[in-house]
Amino acid sequence: MKVRIVLLAALVLVVGLGAGLVSAEGKTITVGPSGCDYTSIQEAIDAASPGDVIKVKTGTYQENLIIDKPLTLRGEGPDLVTIDRSPSAEVSQATLWVSNNVTVTGFTITNTDPDKQAIGIWISGDDVHIVANRIVDVWVGVEAFAGGDGVEIAHNEILRCQIVGIGVLAIGTIITENTISECNGGIALGFKPPEGLGGVASATIFKNTISRNRFGIVSYGAIANIFHNLIEENSGPGIATAYGPSSFTIMGNTIRKNGEEGIRLGPGDIAMLLQNTVAENKGNGILLAVEFAEVAGNRILANQGNGINVRSCGIAVIVGGGYDAGWVHANVIKDNEGYGLFAEDASMILACYSNEISGNEMGDFSENLKDQCQKAGGSE
To answer: Quick check: helix, strand or coil at residue 104?
Structure first.
């Protein structure tokens, strides 16, 4: 039985990203070193009423902020306004903690105290918009911990995070057009045991640039749509899963020059891999050890391992009562240093047809697939 993954409803929201930034505004409160209503951002937050806008003037503010009411916090721009975690804060305290109906835009958010771990922005609510900030030198850039409905993390520059640029445990988070670089990891969905608290994270990850991290995107049992991202030059895999089944649609991404596999999916995963370019990665282009995957319309080029490597990972890969990993069709698989298409057991491939496979150093197919797989022009 051919499995199709239903795209998350969150995809529809991508069309209108940014609309949440405009809402009915209350009064405007100003913060600045002089000539403003307040010199402290937190004092302005405490004095504000729901719906107010707090405009922060040029300067560096050493504060830890708690925004527990619907507000817009607007800086004059990341090059002009910096929120630096207070030196008196507790070790693990976030620089900003935000609840429901909050917008934060126009700041550099950082932690200049190397002896204290700090999350840049901790989200614990719905309808939160973290837009057009620079988040740098923190433990985790943005953590969407709870809620998630209407949470948008967009147009931010996130650099040099010790753990991960963006972490998601919430449901329905939209992550779009961010640049995430020089972090231990780019985006992490779900929590790695034993630290995890359970639950299923979900996100739409759209048009981000994720580069020069240890890994690009990793999922611990999450649900995600991953569309049109550039994932390159990470020292580990471009996209990977671990510790529990994930459900993915991975479409239209460029995944190149990563230090391990371009895409590595593990036991129990269900995935559609459509129209991606997976090129020049140091491991396999795509490594599958999944419950089911459809791999269609991809360009899988010049990877240092196999173009596509299908293996059981010691777990029965079952679809419709057989040991079938899924369909592989209409792909261009060329110039890889291993096989174009390799499977530990031919029965793991349910269908393989209409692919353009050539120029792979070890052969276009592993020996056990030559009778079953056909190149371009073949039929199912």
So the answer is: strand
Q: Residue 52 corresponds to which tokens in the numbers above?
A: 């107010």
Instruction: Give me the CATH topology for the region 10-369.
Output: Pectate Lyase C-like (2.160.20)
Q: 148 to each of 122, 152, 169, 363, how far by Cα in Å?
A: 12, 8, 8, 46
Q: Which range, of 197-206, 210-219, 318-327, 368-377, averages the lowest pLDDT?
A: 318-327
- CA distances for 342 relative to 279, 310, 371, angstroms: 17, 6, 13
Answer whether 0.90 is exceeded by the pTM: no
Give per-residue pLDDT as tens, 85-118.
766 656 556 889 999 999 999 999 998 776 667 8
Contacts of 106 (CB under 8 A, 6+ apart): 56, 74, 75, 76, 77, 78, 81, 132, 133
235-267 CB burial, b ≥16 within 10 A, e <16 = ebbbbbbeebbbbbbbbbbbbbbbebbbbbbbb
Query: What's the CA gap between 196 and 189, in Å, rounded?
Result: 11
| Model pLDDT for residues 63-82, shown as the tens digit of each residue | 999 999 999 999 999 999 99
How far is it, in rounded angstroms, from Cα 137 to Cα 147? 26
Instruction: Give whole-number Cα distances, 208 to 102, 110, 179, in Å.
Output: 22, 21, 6
- Report percent pLDDT > 70 for the chain: 82
